[in-house]
Amino acid sequence: MNSRAQTAQAVQSNEEIEAFARKLLDRVGVYGKPPTPEAAIIAVASLVKHGELDLEAERASLLKQFGAALISGLKKIQGLLDLRERVIFVTSDLHEKRKPFVAFHEVGHSVIPWQRDVLCRGDDNLSLSPNTKQLFEAEANSFAANLIFQVDAFDNEAKDCSFAIQTPILLADRYGASYHSALRRYVERHESPCALLILGQAIQVVGQSRKLGHVRYIVSSKQFKGQFGHPEWPHVLGGQTVNGRVGTLVEIPRAQGQVLLRDLDGNERAFLCERWTNQFETFLMLRPIRTKRKLFAPRIVLISGSDLKDEEGKA
Ligand SMILES: [Zn+2]
To answer: Which of 79, 117, 182, 228 would be 172's cystine partner, CB 3.0–4.6 Å?
Structure first.
């Protein structure tokens, strides 16, 4: 299959997955009334949630008990679905805000028809090809996100608020979503060209007041990709070691910064960079600004920028 056909298929599948999520929300009658109630969604999908267990520790006994089950989570087991018994498990050591997402992910495996058909045939974690398993995981993640953010309800609310990093942060609590997933959703579905850099914990530079962070991955809106592709980020201090760590580093602005990016036609465009930090991560959101004044020196300084990679579908 060529890449155009694959893209067309992925888009079709995205639209279908949104439609399945919408149908479930309508059946429970909660569209536009977040947060999406986990118990009601599980019940309307005719499933039962069997408590919470440390699934990784119970892997062998669960598979023995449930036989043809689908294990979710590509690296570490996060959930388990047994369609024959119509039960789902969610692992116990997840952040509270992540648990409904994993439960909805398992619901997704059971209601997406082409997945249900394969699973009902008796295919499971052992017999599915790695590619199919990866595709099923991505589809179930998309389904779960559509339940949490109620398809376009989150987008519509966000549109009525200012174009700022605080908007998804404020809406996250209302939708019972993690800040991380709300920020991603906001940027990926935004109608303007914008990007989100997700950094690890901030590193204080010895003897200086500035802080740096490793870029873990970048997501961007469709419009950003169309106008900027994968831009050449500014390079400064290429390859230097900071506190013994080498890699893709970005200087974290105190609150806001500005950066110039070159679009695919070669024109420079100014972006405002807003920061939001929690205990574990720093997020930098870039949104375009119009300025007639000369920009002050960019405060966003990337090191080894060529190492940056977009990572669209994290499991
Ligand atoms: Zn799964």
So the answer is: 182
